[in-house]
Amino acid sequence: MFVITADQVDSRNRPDIVESTRREIDARFGDELALPADRNAGDELQALTERAEAAVGILLALDRAQAWSIGVGFGVVREPLPRNVRSATGPAFYAARNAVDAAKKRATRFALRAGETVKDAAASDLEALIDLLLTLRARRSVAGWELYDLLAQGMTQREAAAKLGVSEPAVSSRARAAGIHPEAAAVPALTRLMQDLDGASSEGATA
User: Fold this and answer.
1) What do you get for the CA distance between the two ends of the chain, in Å?
2) What is the average pLDDT score of the chain?
3) 191 domain-assigned
4) Among 87, 170, 177, 207, which residue is least crowded by beta carbons within 10 Å?
């Protein structure tokens, strides 16, 4: 399973966004969460899911806000699950705690850690690949994000051009500058790699 633990950056000097972000995650990913997202330790947010797609989606949503240090841990979770995620425990939660602590010291403010049954090198390799995607997204302009959102809604580039009132070549140029198509190719690949690592951790725990 995947545990996402996010710590709000500079929370003492910024408005508390934990509750509003928690509601957004539940609204968007609720059907894919093992338990509702919850506040943990004051200015932290925590989510638990079995699905790599949801874990990657939550990571990217939190990263876009540029307001969180984000740790993703994966591995075994103690069962039966409690009624709320902040009461849950197990190697995946310990890994997420280590990850968020590491994330606070990294340029991307993201870290990935595995439970006890996966080699550190495998998790480090995946972390490095996700870093590349996060770095690409961090360089995206406001105009690039505007186009990204339209395409994410299912628009074609032609439809997006009409919506934005620009030419199709201008939209193509904006998409290249924003790295939209490389991201679209990378996210499914990273999701599969994350799912494979979680599967390896589960197999190791039962071996």
Assistant:
1) 17
2) 93
3) yes
4) 207
Which tokens hold the place of 194?
Answer: 């994350």
Range of the domain at 53: 2-140+179-206
Say how far apart CA 159 and CA 29 lie, in whole Å.
27
Q: What are the tens digits of pLDDT across the range 114-128?
A: 977 666 778 899 999
**Smallest Cα–Cα separation from 48: which of 25, 18, 21?**
25
User: Domain total for the chain?
Assistant: 1
Pick from 167, 164, 168: nearest CA to 147:
164
State the average pLDDT over residues 72-83: 95
- Our CA angle for 187, 26, 96, nearest 5°, is 60
Residue corresponding to tokens 């009409």: 162
Three-state DSSP class for residue 46: strand
Transcribe 96-161 into DSSP letters. Answer: HHHHHHHHTTSTTSEEEEE-TTS-HHHHHHHHHHHHHHHHHHHT--HHHHHHHHHHHTT--HHHHH
pLDDT tens per residue across span 30-77 = 999 999 999 998 899 999 999 999 999 999 999 999 999 999 999 999
